[in-house]
Write the structure tokens for this entry.
Amino acid sequence: MTKSKARCNILVCGTMSSGSSAMHNLLKEYDNIGHFSMEFDDYRAPGLVADQLDYSSSINFPNQIDKVIKNSNFIKRLLFRTLLWDYFFKCIPKRYLDINYNNRKLEKLQKKIIETRLSSLLRQLNKSLKKNISFEEKIQLSNQWIHDIGNVFSIKKEYTLFDQPLTNSFSANWTSVFNPYKLIIVYRNPLDQIADMINRRILFLPYGAPYMTIAGDNLEAIYGRDRKGAIRFQLDAIKRRLEWIDYLKKTLDQDHLLVLDFEGLVNNYSEYKSKVEGFLGLTKDNHKFKNRYFDPIKSKENVGLFKKHLSEDEIKDLSDIEVKWENLKLISQYELD
């Protein structure tokens, strides 16, 4: 694909248990969007690509890409060091890398091939980033890396879909790395977010249970180890992510940013789907795999979860975040006529 017709990168992010997976699943149903099932950690994870493109972060956060490569299995490492891997990958019919290719027997093989190729591309980028090159060259190489990732499973598609590629960092480097891009952020009633974490048994996950970790020990020292402390920690994290959304709304234009609520997506599915299609430039004809990955009727069961999982005292304690959520008025831009 020539640079004159650059493939657009769709970035889908949330605010933790906010329903962004629903949006990701909806977009997987379009035939002109290439996608991979896993969250995209290679850019956002601590010490990986994003930190190597930020002067302040890279000084304090050492390169962890080597560790990721080292932890890959022996076969992967062997393939990375030979030219046979590139030849093998070029010989694979591209339709076999299309996740929507209707052959369930190939799903596991598809995933392994794509994972190995993505690891190889990360290794190649890391090698270049370690060279004595300018910051601008690093950005250009990283942008080419994203384009090459799209070539793995989106080469004949108009879009590449990335799931959770960003954290709530105020760094603007990602806009250049993922260019051209469209960012969609899904937010949700914070009470339901907390309830969802409880329901999925991930409320205490940051503590590192059942092992003692430095991070978990520090969380306990600040918030305590009980349920109330864990909720307060998750609440502070949600507040920070809402501030990030507010920041993005002030810095990105409406051609690049779409913010919508999970409740609206499931309760007003057709209207919200049309808004998403308009934002991305999709057509209804591209929606070839309807309800294969996303069922709005079933998702409605996740609205109002807090009534089942939070006590009256907990709901009262969380009233401040509910007020903050309302005050942001994130829905105003997308209210239905």
